[in-house]
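ok so I'm stuck.
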Amino acid sequence: MKKIKKSSRKAPRYPKLEEKLFILFKDMREEKLPVSYSGFKTEALKISSDLGQTNFKASNGYLQKFFLEIELRKESQHIIFKK
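replied:
not stuck anymore, here's the structure
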């Protein structure tokens, strides 16, 4: 019998925020708007502020993990990233 690995994925630290960020990302993709780290970071900070999450920093590491979570790697040829 094969051993089944448990998922190493952790529960989201900011579930409401991540849901709203995913919707933002999806809307930007549908409108064929470029997704930039700096622009997305600004929007993430605005959304977190609206949700009352004052300890959220939207670090580059957080954004990288977020984008990996929504499988940007697979779609990277269709997205324009600007730094």
